[in-house]
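EI: anyone free to look at a 218-residue chain?
SC: sure, send it
EI:
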Amino acid sequence: MELDEMKLAWQQLNQRLDRQQALNLRLYRERRLDKLRHGLRPLVWGQAIQIAFGVLFMLLGTAYWAGHLETLHRIVLGVTVQVFGIVMVAFAGRILHLVLEIDYTAPVLDIQRRLAQLRAWRVRIEAPVFAVVGSFVWIPLLLMEIHWEIGVDVWARWPAFVGWLVICGWISLALVLMVVLLAHWTGRMRWITDNAAGKAVRKAEAALEEIACFERDG
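SC: here you go
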C-alpha cells in the first residue's frame, strides 16, 4: 500500500511539474510575442509615413502635369513623380498587409513563415525597386521644384544639364550595384539583406528564435 501511495504521489508531482512547465512556456511565449508585436510597430508607423509621402508625390505630380498639358516633357516629369507616389503607396500597403496577416496565436513555425514572406518582399522586391527608382526620381522632383520656385524650365533651356543629371543618376545606381557586388564577393551579403529587411524584422525573427529554442529545451 505504501508503494502504491508513493507511485501516486510521484505521478501527481510529475503532473504538477508538467503543468508548471506548460504555464512557464505559455507565459514566456506571451511575453516574447507581445514584445515582437510592439517591435513591429515602428515598421507600421514607417509605412504610414511612406503612404503620406506617396500621396503627396501623387498630388504634386498630378498638379504639375495637369497644369502643363501643352508641353510634353513637363507631362513626363509630372507623370513620373505621380507614378513614384503610387509605387510608394502600393509598396507600403503590401508591407502593412503582410504585417496584419501575422497571427500571434499561431504556432511559431507559422509566424516564422509570415516573417519570411515579409523579409523576402523587402529584400527581393522593395529594396531593388527603390534602389533603381531612387537613383533617378530626384531628377524630376528637382526640375519641378526649380520650375515652380523660380519659373525656369531647365529641360527646355538647358537640356544638356538634364542629360548630366541623368548621368549622375546612373552613377548613383552603379555605386549601389558596386556595394552589392562587393558584399557578395566578401561574403557580407547577409549584412545587405539584413539592412534591407529592416531592424524591426530582424528583432522579430530573433524573438521567434528565442521562443523556438525555449520550446525545444523545454
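EI: The CA atoms of residues 37 and 204 lie 8 Å apart.
SC: 👍
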